[in-house]
């Protein structure tokens, strides 16, 4: 099973996927405007913790921000949220 995360400017949607089929999904408000990195990451992890279990083998995320190819670093902003710019998604992830 896989956890798919869509991080948008308005909502964050988390879905559990297996065999190419969406098993369940839930939507939450996106990050608070002006939130710092720690608050943003804590909120994201709290959402992940709600749905992740021992059967989840991978976590993938799509963001409305640009990332450095192959290195998972957010480098520019195409939406309203700027709190993750410059963040290494690999280094910050406790699920890696």
State which percent range the strand residues make up: 35-45%
Specify the oligomeric state: single chain
In the sheet with the most strands, the strands line up as 3-2-1-4
The dominant shape is globular
Order of H and E elements: EEEHEEEH
Distance between the termini: 16 Å
Q: What is the highest CATH level, the class?
A: Alpha Beta
- Count of distinct strands: 6
Assigned CATH architecture = 2-Layer Sandwich
Radius of gyration: 13 Å
Integer tally of domains: 1
Whole-number mean pLDDT:
74
Task: Give a structural overview.
By secondary structure, the chain is an alpha+beta fold. The chain has one domain: Nucleotidyltransferase, domain 5 (2-Layer Sandwich). It contains 2 helices and 6 strands, in the order βββαβββα. It has helices spanning 37-51, 89-92, and strands at residues 2-7, 11-18, 21-29, 58-63, 65-67, 74-77. The strands form 2 sheets. The chain has a 4-stranded mixed sheet with strand order 3-2-1-4, with helices on one face. It has a two-stranded antiparallel ribbon with strand order 5-6. A hairpin with a 3-residue loop joins strand 1 (2-7) and strand 2. The relative contact order is 0.22. Mean pLDDT is 74; it is low at 66-71.
């Amino acid at each position: 099973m896989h956890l798919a995360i869509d991080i948008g400017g308005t909502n964050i949607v988390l879905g559990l996927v297996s065999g190419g089929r969406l098993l369940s999904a839930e939507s939450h408000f996106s990050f608070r405007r002006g939130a710092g990195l720690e608050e943003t990451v804590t909120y994201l992890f709290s959402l992940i913790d709600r749905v992740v279990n021992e059967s989840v083998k991978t976590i993938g995320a799509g963001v409305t921000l640009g990332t450095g190819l192959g290195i998972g670093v957010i480098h520019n902003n195409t939406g309203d949220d700027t709190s993750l710019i410059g963040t290494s998604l690999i280094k910050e992830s406790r699920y890696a």
